Fold:
Amino acid sequence: MSKNNFTVRTDLEKARASALASLSMREHSVKELTDKLTNKDYEPESIQIVIKECLENNYLNDERFAEIYCRSRAQKGYGPLKISMELKLKGITENQAKKALHQDEVDFYQIAKKAYLKKYRETPIADFKDKIKRQNFLYRRGFDFDLISHVIN
Structure:
């Protein structure tokens, strides 16, 4: 179908183009891409077809997304608890999240230590209140009590 030499694209073609444009920018989870296409008001059937095509062509892979996301968030100083929660919100299963969090490249002790030193440098802990404040900082970053106590002590 042509109209003044411009091709009228179907909903499926537009959804496919939008999905590929999004995936060319960064990795997405299946849930993220589905939500993005849904928010752009593409037909549910078109979205299902595009997601299936992306999975079949390995353009979309939740395990790969989880590994990349985990590495990225860890480099920014976040711990396994926070990353795990964020992955869950992005549609990643608990098993996929655990696998991503246990990558060889990710050493959460070093990440916690680096985040702590960046914020507090070598400043000694003044009192109990200061110690609690520092522990809470690392806890909000997503580190568990064992890692926190290991870094602070």
Residues 7-60 form a domain with the Arc Repressor Mutant, subunit A fold (CATH 1.10.10.10). Residues 4 and 83 are 50 Å apart (CA to CA). Confidence is low (pLDDT under 50) at residues 1-6.
